[in-house]
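Late entry, evening session. Most of the bench is empty. Finally got around to the prediction I had been postponing all week. Sequence below, unchanged from the version circulated by S.P.
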Amino acid sequence: MSVARDVVIDNMVDGVIVLDSQDQVVDLNPAAQRVLGCPFSEAVGHPVARMMPGQVVALLERHHGSEEAHEEAALGTGPAPRYYDIAISSLYTRNVARSGRLISFRDITERKGLEQRLTQQALHDPLTGLPNRTLFMNRLELAMARGRRRESKVAVLFVDLDNFKFVNDSLGHEAGDLLLVAVSKRVRPCLRSEDTIARLGGDEFAVLLEDVKDTSEPAHVADRIVEELRVPFTLGHQQVFITPSIGIAMGDYSHDSPEHLLREADLAMYRAKKEGKARHWVFDPSMEAETMKRLRLENDLRLALERNEFRVRYQPVVHLGTGRVIGMEALVRWEHPERGLILPDEFVPLAEEIGLIIPIGRWVLREACRQARKWQERYLAEPPLSMGVNLSARQLRSSDLVEDVEGLLRETGLHPEHLILEITESAVVGEEKHRIGTLRRLQALGVRFALDDFGTGYSSLSYLKRLPVSLLKIDRSFVERIGQDAEDEVLVAGIVYVASGLGLSVLAEGVETYEQLAWVKSLGCELAQGYYFAEPLSSEGAGELLATDDLKRKRDSVDASSS
């Protein structure tokens, strides 16, 4: 076939090669000559296969019809070949089915580079460069498919850094980012080259192990990670200690989805945290049942407030000098429609975790203040009955706490000095300046404070000096061990002595026997509460007790005036 030189193709940016019916080069434009590094004189009259990569030759062999065939390929002789979109189409002349073919190639190197960068960004964590959740789940799905074919197992390790939020909050997000990068570099050498480590987000990482025989293999990897991270990290001039909690889940051909397997590892990680952190835990099916139970409890808890299922019980506070009830402590209970009365130990931590403790705490405070004011008006006493209400750490962090308390006192008519907010040492630890500032603002309103469960937490005497507390509550665990632990008795005696020196009243919790009552009274405890006096009562039951106490007070008054 004779083809005249076409000046049009000479001016084209795309490379163009014209072939005859035998795939011999008839013509090629300057762009094609530059890309292939082959001048016109050496190309024309020769088979195109001699100058094109095998990928393009294979495309020529596959192209038989009138439709265009396309392929992306690297062309060129330089150290960094460029990428081209190759198109092959048929040439036709009159009365000839196909007289030849046309190859054109368009430079797509920049587009290809952009696609690769976008793919990298879409599938990798920008901070650590590790695979992200999307890529990890894709690899896990492929690994599980291979495992089903081979009847082999895979393992997923869910790694969460313990107390990372504290590091992030105290040292700043930049330091937190540096720590995450350093952790990823420490973990990588603990794995085989074929294993995958990914950052799922925040301080959560995941590891994929293939072809594992039993839990001993991933457990060994988890122990190596724990040990590797025990070595302190240096961030600038600051040394940081961090530990991981690791959940392990084994997957085989019985698992239906990667999401299910990752969720099992996640559940096991939470169990590792619950068991003390800085360790690993292997998933077992009972965890799923516990999780479903917790999920149902959470759903019910979210509805409990609007369904008016919470109740307040009142435990009397007794003055040991007079034997009279001088106050009440408000204790929240949840009257579940199916499970009955649920104690706060079971639902308050969950309410803290999911952010419901704020509205629940506000409701309890309103009920307690309203009831206290009602009793004050009915049972006249001097000093007036006080009301103690527990304040959680989450409530103490709330920016609306002071306004809430002030508004509820105004709404219920209770005088601030008759409200005692009970806090624990642990609720103040962390952001102490801010939290103590909140307590001072409440104190300025006239509200009083009690330090609850003293002796079981940090028990720092510096807190007694810094916190605006007027009442110290000795934890019931000390009272229970009277006569069993001489060291505890010495400790409690010391606490009472120090509190007295600081001008604080002392209340003993959990008094259940006469022997316990006599002991705490001998130590100098001014106040007590516990089952020896009364269990937590409904408002009706507490009212009856106050009525009896009121009659006793009136009889004593009459006896005193007549003597």
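Two things to note before I forget:
The first helix runs from residue 7 to 10.
The radius of gyration is 38 Å.
Will write this up properly tomorrow.
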